[in-house]
Amino acid sequence: MKPREIAPDVHQLGVVDWDGRLFDAFVPLPEGTSYNCYLIRGRDKTALIDTVEADKADVLFAQLEGVERIDYVISLHAEQDHSGSIPLVLERFPDARLIASKKALNVLSQHLGISKDKLDRVGEGDTLDLGGKVLRFVDTPWVHWPETMSAYLEEDKILFSCDFFGAHLATSDLYADDERRVYAAAKFYYAHIMMPFAAEIMENLTKVDALDIDKVAPSHGPVHRIPEFIINAYKDWAGNPPRNRVLIPFVSMHGSVRTMVDRLVAGLVERGVGVDRFDLSVTDPGRLATALVDAGTVVFGASVVQDYPHPLAAMAAYSINLLKPKTRFVSFIGSYSWSRKALPILMDMMPNLSVETIEPILGKGAPTSDDFEAIDALAQAIADKHAAAGLV
Description:
Layout: E1 4-7, E2 10-17, E3 22-23, E4 27-28, E5 33-41, E6 46-49, H1 57-63, E7 72-74, H2 80-83, H3 86-92, E8 97-101, H4 102-112, E9 119-122, E10 127-129, E11 134-139, E12 149-153, E13 158-162, H5 179-194, H6 198-209, E14 215-218, H7 227-239, E15 245-251, H8 256-270, E16 274-279, H9 285-292, E17 297-305, E18 308-309, H10 311-323, E19 329-336, H11 342-348, E20 356-357, E21 361-364, H12 369-388
Parallel strand pairs: 6-7, 7-8, 8-9, 13-14, 15-16, 15-17, 17-19, 19-20, 19-21
Antiparallel strand pairs: 1-2, 2-5, 3-4, 5-6, 10-11, 11-12, 12-13, 17-18
């Protein structure tokens, strides 16, 4: 698509990746994604904020057709989906200076082979005057790399936030007016990219609150012309307690664990607790991660393979540990044949979680009436703990 104006002399460029289905060789992209960059023309100077993946540079250069001069290339975040084409842009515009945060300079030099002679560093509160267009830089580290910053265009009140407030969403819409769809995509993005850094996000949000913002222009997904929509969503996801919901990722080899899970689901629902149930043998891991944003409790259901938890359960525990949700409680239900060692192995895989463990249930073979009674007691214990913690 051609460059699209979001303010006078401010245009969105980049790539809508309709067909992308995997990000970072890890994150599923059920709705594709986009890689946004922004061209700002002042009276005296022109700046390009971020670029695109190197293998998509041809799309960016087609959009830059007719642009005679770029004075500054601004890298808000050094990851290659935003910085990959920087060497090619600097080759096309050899007089341009590359501007980045202090922490980004070495990363850009090491990853992309850019000469440090081309690099200028900026920090919190520094400004860049393009002539009637002044960019003020805001340090926003750990959203989601340590070197990340944002840029605020003072005259037009636009916050260029890079990955902060982004969404994996391929769409022809310039603006985030389809709030239901954008909310879901932004929450999915938050779960995979931002959730491990909730504390840092809350600190960065205080800086955002100090700005008078008319638009938020992220590097993925559409532009927000109602900034409160995405800012308040982040405050909820990062800062508010989890919900009165239980996430149950499970895998059942011969049906015993599935029977136990179904009993637990019924018991929780009867007690007014919401449930997100995922069969790990078929589930979309992206949906599981999104549900994790709200989960007050995680209950693993797993068969035991020899002495160890089923590999799919182990993978789920490993991923949840990486994502570091605000979950308050964790438990386990499972079935074994001759060894009970799987349970402590699984629990030891999640040291990043600050959770209380609720008494697990590990039955031998098919569940018995005693197992069902224990599962009902577990459902009651979860409901009681959620109520005591004020989860709604």
